[in-house]
Write a structure and sequence with these properties.
By secondary structure, the chain is α/β, with parallel strands linked by helices. It has helices at about 45-50, 75-80, 100-105, 120-130, 150-160, 180-195, 205-210, 235-240, 305-310, 335-340, 350-355, 360-365, 380-395, 410-420, 440-455, 465-475, 495-505; strands at about 5-15, 20-30, 35, 60-65, 70, 85, 165-170, 195-200, 215-220, 220-230, 260-270, 280-290, 290-295, 320-325, 325-330, 340-345, 375, 375-380, 430, 460-465, 475-480, 485-490. GO terms for molecular function: ATP binding.
Length: about 500
């Protein structure tokens, strides 16, 4: 058995007097992969920020031993020098710098005289990208030229370049395709074989089960269990995380589907950089009152472009008509769309859903501030009461509404964005990847809320990459492929195979 590389003993961390971690113990051996599991807000990311000195020694209680010696790091640079590398949920790339410059950021090779050795840097970056199965990426181009999945793998390339002895992966697959996830898991297996220890944090429990040797579960900042994966399965992990059995992943709540409330006619979106190329090609559909309409398709199918164009948020040329309750409406900008009766919870909550500099409460009320204003002043007490109501309604975990929104876990940020958009009292609610980066317990609560809103007569359009989710909650499913509408199915007896066949242009278009 490999020697213990890391021990964390009695780790405690408080924010404004509220405990976020309460005496956590963790041990990991060289070549071992630990799955760190827990619901949103359980303290997983906080624990890893303590380990990597994002929260420096002295700001928390307890002891960390690395290679048997006390680790009292006061900066990330110190933990990286020891061989502890963290890949955060939020990518730490500089968009304007090249791929190679990002991979070497802070560790650039130099020539005599101090100039950067770009040829050496580019050669090493190309080697790393080949290892990551990304040989088509040009390392001299700005990293902003590449999509979220490629950027996530480039972030992992940075870690590989730093010769990690302990690699922490915090939701590493949130923006990856199925093929990219397989590459990621193979990389982790290779690292384990080389003796690198890994901590893997993911809400995709199938990944955790596939790659991890040991499962550590924490709940509400406390250690619940440490169990070898061979004694676990996904259902047992869920039960330990939630403190209860989740007998069904998708709630059932009767709701009536009524008359057509919204029509999208001939929606076309053009590539901002290549206007002759269509991202969405003449798509028309309708959604009914109280209906949950799922939109499925492979990566690049045009799903997000379609719904952002309907909401007036597409960043390129688009055309088409949007009709609401029998009348054509102007949704050429998000503000006009909100006033018409639409709301959008965007795919990328960090870039488009939250305002990072504002508090939890300020983010929640941002879309309806005029409701609390009088003579150009905000009625703070009325606003606070509404914020408290929404926090209770959404089951949002926060020590205080005054905390920065960035202090919350990803799932709780998502709940805040959802609360913000629901305050606009929409007739049509568009949810783009509503449960990305959200744990199974919180997913259940979001599905339940969707069904409750549908029962109230709100029309819901949900874009999701998870076919099981689309089939689990939708009344009807649209399938897109290469910018075109390839299927329109009532969700009765519909299977993942039927949806995939439509997505690649095979099978019946209606069902």
């Amino acid at each position: 058995m490999s020697p213990i590389l890391l021990e964390m003993k009695g780790i405690a961390k408080r924010f404004d007097g509220v405990p976020a971690l309460d005496g956590i113990d963790l041990a990991i051996r060289s070549g071992e992969c630990i799955g760190l599991c827990g619901e949103n807000g359980a303290g997983k990311s906080t624990l890893m920020k303590v380990l990597s000195a994002v929260y420096p020694h002295g700001s928390w209680d307890g002891e960390i031993l690395f290679d048997g010696r006390p680790l009292r790091a006061r900066s990330v640079r110190e933990t990286e020098a020891a061989g502890i590398i963290i890949i955060h949920q939020e990518l730490m790339l500089v968009p304007e710098l090249s791929v190679a410059e990002n991979i070497f950021l802070g560790n650039e090779p130099t020539l005599p005289g101090g100039r950067l050795d770009y040829p050496a840097m580019n050669r090493r970056a190309e080697d790393i990208l080949r290892e990551l199965k990304l040989p088509d990426v040009n390392v001299v181009l700005p990293v902003k030229n590449y999509g979220g999945g490629h950027q996530q793998l480039i972030e992992i390339g940075k870690a590989l370049n730093k010769q990690a002895r302990l690699l922490i992966l915090d939701e590493p697959s949130a923006s990856l395709t199925a093929a990219e996830i397989e590459v990621l898991l193979e990389i982790v297996r290779d690292l384990k074989a080389r003796g690198v220890a890994c901590v893997y944090i993911s809400h995709k429990l199938e990944e955790v089960a596939a790659i991890c040797d040991t499962i550590v579960v924490i709940r509400d900042g406390k250690h619940i269990a440490t169990t070898p994966m061979r004694e676990m399965n996904v259902d047992r992990i869920i039960a330990q995380m939630c403190g209860r059995e989740l007998n069904q992943l998708y709630p059932s709540l009767p709701h009536t589907v009524g008359e057509v409330v919204m029509e999208a006619r001939h929606i076309t979106c053009r590539d901002p950089d290549q206007p002759r190329r269509k991202k969405v090609d003449d798509v028309s559909f309708e959604v009914r009152r109280g209906e949950i309409l799922g939109i499925a398709g492979l990566v690049g199918a045009g799903r997000t472009e379609l719904v952002t164009a309907i909401f007036g948020a597409y960043d390129g040329p688009s055309e088409g008509e949007v009709w609401l309750e029998g009348a054509r409406v102007d949704t050429s900008s998000p503000l006009k769309a909100i006033r018409a009766g639409f709301a959008l919870v965007p795919e990328d909550r960090k870039q488009h859903g939250i305002v990072r500099d504002l508090s939890v409460g300020q983010n929640i009320t941002l879309s309806v501030l005029e409701r609390f204003s009088s003579l150009s002043r905000i009625d703070d007490s009325r606003e606070s009461r509404e914020v408290d109501t929404q926090i209770r309604r959404m089951g949002l975990k926060t020590a205080s509404p005054a905390l920065p929104i960035t202090a919350l876990s990803g799932g709780n940020q998502q709940k805040a964005v959802l609360a913000k958009m629901l305050l606009t009292q929409p007739k049509v609610l568009i949810l783009d990847e509503p449960t990305r980066g959200v744990d199974v317990g919180a997913k259940f609560e979001i599905y339940k809320l969707m069904l409750e809103l549908a029962a109230q007569g709100i029309a819901i359009i949900m874009v999701s990459s998870e076919l099981a989710e689309v089939l689990g909650v939708s009344d009807r499913v649209l399938v897109m492929g290469e910018g075109k509408l390839r299927g329109n199915f009532v969700n009765q007896g519909l299977t993942q195979e039927m949806v995939l066949a439509a997505a690649i242009g095979q099978g019946n278009q209606h069902g």
